[in-house]
Amino acid sequence: MNQTFHGHEVQPGQLFINNEFVEASAGGRFTTSCPSTGEVITDIAEGTAPDIDAAVAAARAALAGTWGSMPAARRGQLLSRVADLIEERIDRLAVIETLDQGKPITESSKADIPLAARIVRYFAGWADKITGDVLPVAGNYHTYTHRQPVGVVGQIIPWNFPILIACWKMAPALAAGNTIVLKPAEQTPLTALELAKIFRDAGFPPGVVNVVTGDGPGAGASLVAHPGVNKIAFTGSTAVGQEIMRRSADTLKRVSLELGGKSPNIVFEDADLTSAVFGAIGGIFYNKGEVCAAGSRLFVQRSIHAAFMEQLKAATAKRLVDDPFNPKTRVGPQVSAEQQARILGYIEQGKAEGARLVAGGEAAQVNGRGWFVQPTIFDEVDNGMVIAQEEIFGPVLSVIPFDDAEDVVRKANATIYGLAAGIWTKDIKLAHRTARAIEAGTVWINCYNVFDPMGPFGGFKMSGFGRDLGRDALDDYTEVKTVWVDLN
Prior knowledge:
globular, Aldehyde Dehydrogenase, Chain A, domain 1, 16 helices, Aldehyde Dehydrogenase, Chain A, domain 2
């Protein structure tokens, strides 16, 4: 039964295979709920192994047929049309994203979805510019390289940025000529199904884009193990990324992983405190802390610690925790009751470890409902504490004092992760030296959480490998073939 939310109708979800919406082969369904109220939004088809088989077969047929023979420039035109449709439907997409994920409507409508459209348009421009090289080899040979699609790509996306991460995985894969089977997170499937409609409406041939909803052990594991899938692209937790690598070994499929983080955000004593406080707040409380690159470890130089903390606490107190459809809301609900409980468990762990709670620390509700957590700050955190080492994925900030650059680099790198980092200083030499020394795939200097389609994003260490965004993303979706021609 269709329901209407904030003026937009939501219908029960089906699988999208070969340009058609179909029921799951086993007839299973699951529900998706609204984090701000706990109410069920609708029910969704639960795909299993036979549905993955059907989607992969459709993707392989498209690769061997219309899509595989389509001129690159035409692929770019179709992707440009997708970007246009995302922008045309931004109001609907934003409402559905906020309804299903819980992020504030201002973030959905003003940040995530506009960036998604920009990413698709950026990669549309790359479609006919993926070229090889002529190699000046020894001997009388004409030798050149050719980049061709990997093939069928399985893409598994998380629940924190559903439509944005879907686009930054789908766009480069399609620009390079691959076909896709997308498995969205079971907590947030709705905008992936909206994207399926957009790709069909844009004119993509059947089988090029397929969306199979379902859980990890069913649809996800079947996609990873499928012998007809040439590559898996995954964004999510490090533990699941490790399992994907293990399950991919039997078929030796290519894998790219963007995984967890425990990113250091470093404030030196000469930093502009107002800007640094703003950056620290956005670095941890944007999207209610459900951000892989969140600046969850805030390193503050001892000489400015007291003054900085005063401003930080005052700014945190102004973050409005409320209904995510309120345009003034800055902290919405966590995505699920399970995630809320997990975050609250870490908060109790921080108290038990002896960190000093200076803000938040409790669950919250709006009109008696919802899976909210107050913006939380722990001060005087030791870098070895659990709350400083494990990814909480919520609005919980650990403030850690440091003495000098050598001290903070050592502490910042003392983690299994290496996804992102922030540096706040007016000393440009210090900024560049520190950026070079930090083990992270992205380093922001005097800013935080800045993204652009051109900027590659990915991790060091156990934050994964491969890159999303930028020209580098295309490397993950192409194979390089070397051709030798004897001219003797």
